[in-house]
Amino acid sequence: MAQATLPATTGEKYRVECVRWMTDFNPDLFVTFVFNRGISMDEAQRTFEKFHGYIDRRMIGRAFLRRPDKRSNYIATIEKPDTNIHIHALFKMSGIQRLRFGLIADGIWETLVKGGNLDIQVVHCAEGVADYITKELRPQTSDRLLLPRHTEVSPFR
Q: What is the dihedral of CA 117, 125, 71, 99, to 10 degrees?
């Protein structure tokens, strides 16, 4: 019987813990947000957060800021900030939110990012997508980990 190898470095241990945490998050959707142009990490994060506010407003209504318990949750990472910057996000939503997200997300993203595009996929294997979106995540790149402001989600509580 093969034995699992243990992570050897602090960076590998950090990534393994992030994969475990994201798997336990039990996401419903895996979404890649593509900008198709060069922008800073700060601008990418602001645009992504603006998208999240717009999507929740459309799904919940104008009072979405006063209803954090109804808002969608996500864990996201920024990848390739120096070449082809994009964001991978794992979303946790109710069934009706997933349906509405699929209907309105492309239009919202196109409004925010001319020429940008989304790839929306249903999650069938949480560990697999968590492993994929953490491939560049290490303690020294932890500023690329994005969490919603309306929750106190932390991988290391």
A: 60
How many angstroms separate the CA atoms of 48 and 99, rounded?
20
Q: How far apart are CA 35 and CA 91, in angstroms?
A: 19
**Alpha carbon distance 106, 21 (integer Å):** 28
Contact 27, 75 (CB under 8 A): yes
Which pTM value belongs to this model? 0.87
Residue 122: beta bridge partners?
29
| CA–CA separation, 17 and 33 (whole Å) | 24
Q: How far apart are CA 136 and CA 155, in angstroms?
A: 16
User: Does position 127 have pLDDT exceeding 90, yes or no?
Assistant: yes
The three-class DSSP label of residue 123 is coil
pLDDT for residue 67: 74
- How far does the chain reach from its first CA to its final CA, in angstroms? 34
- How many Å apart are CA 46 and CA 122, to the nearest integer? 25
Residues facing 5 on adjacent strands: none
Q: Is the pLDDT at 42 greater than 60, yes or no? A: yes
Pair of tokens at residue 68: 């954090």
